[in-house]
UniProtKB/TrEMBL annotation:
Keywords: 4Fe-4S, Cytoplasm, Iron, Iron-sulfur, Metal-binding, Oxidoreductase, Queuosine biosynthesis, tRNA processing. PROSITE patterns: 4FE4S_FER_1 (PS00198), 4FE4S_FER_2 (PS51379). This is Epoxyqueuosine reductase. It comes from Anaerotruncus colihominis. Residues 143-173 form the 4Fe-4S ferredoxin-type domain. InterPro entries: 4Fe4S_Fe-S-bd, 4Fe4S_Fe_S_CS, QueG, QueG_DUF1730.
């Protein structure tokens, strides 16, 4: 069974992939895509895609958000792989998932032999360290599980020490304190939350725990050509609306990015000022969107 799978994965140029049993990833996460899980699912094919394409000094967003929207790129690749697998495994179902998956992807990747889980909760892979996206194909085919990978995390604790807010602690994670989470929040922020965005200097994300991890110093660059086509390491008022139509953070919308920019520049008090709101409204009306500035 797995020889045919390997033929497809090599043909798709997937260099980091593995298999785990479906029942080992239960229970599923309570998300809408859970309804897409095929009846009688038996295996999960997990695929990693490196996203690191360079250092980009002066960036004000997380590394993963520099390239074009990974959802679009990965979904197309996994759909193509699923089509080939359906042709080889006649009668079996293959359903791809990216990001909003009912499968706990870090755990699934670990079970599929693609690495181990670091103290910051991220997957550490031998090729891409934690600088990778995870995609899955859930199938009714009974595939042989991959062997577990050798540990990479040395439990050095540098990720925990680098966390500026104490969100990371040994054995736990407080999402409400995470700077990356705070940059993505809608609505009115507390004084402390605004201070975290200002001190962090990132319009989107944080990267402190990831950058501190010694395993990431050996991370290889991405082998996904599409990630190199339109890198945008800096978000500013002039390009925020356009980037929301092209990048992974577009789901959150331009107002949040503009708010964060103004906080960093020391101009924000109670959200976006009147002039910024008027400019944003004009841009949205011009594009014919609904104000959320979502891609696609």
């Amino acid at each position: 069974m797995n020889s045919r799978l390997e033929t497809v994965m090599r043909g798709m140029a997937f260099d980091e992939w593995g298999v785990c049993r479906f029942h080992d990833v239960l229970p599923l996460l309570p998300v809408r895509s859970k309804a897409r899980i095929p009846q009688g699912a038996r295996s999960v094919i997990v695929v990693l895609f490196g996203y690191y394409i360079g250092d980009f000094p002066g960036r004000n967003i997380s590394y993963y958000a520099i390239a074009d929207d990974y959802h679009t790129v990965l979904r197309a690749a996994l759909e193509a792989a699923a089509d080939r697998l359906r042709a080889l495994y006649v009668g079996e179902q293959f359903v791809p998932f990216v990001d909003a998956s009912p499968v706990a992807e870090v755990r699934a990747a670990c079970l599929a032999g693609l690495g181990d889980i670091g103290m910051n909760g991220q997957l550490l892979n031998r090729t891409y360290a934690s600088r990778c996206f995870i995609g899955e194909i859930v199938t009714t085919a009974a595939l042989e599980p991959s062997r577990r990978a050798a540990p990479l995390c040395t439990r050095c604790g540098r990720c925990i020490a680098a966390c500026p807010t104490g969100a990371l602690r040994p054995g736990s994670f407080d999402r409400a304190l995470c700077r990356s989470h705070i940059t993505q929040k809608k609505g009115v922020l507390t004084d402390w939350e605004r201070a975290q965005i200002r001190d962090g200097g990132f319009v989107w994300g944080c990267d402190r725990c990831t950058d501190a991890c010694p395993v990431n110093r050996q991370a290889q660059k991405s082998r996904v050509p599409a990630f190199y086509e339109h890198p945008e390491p800096v978000v500013h008022a002039g390009n925020a609306a356009r980037l929301c139509r092209e990048k992974a953070y577009g789901w959150r919308g331009t107002p949040v990015l503009l708010r964060n920019l103004k906080i960093i520049c020391g101009e924000e008090q109670d959200g976006i000022d009147t002039g910024a709101r008027a400019a944003l409204r004009a841009d949205v009306n011009k594009q014919g969107e609904d104000g959320r500035c979502q891609k696609g």
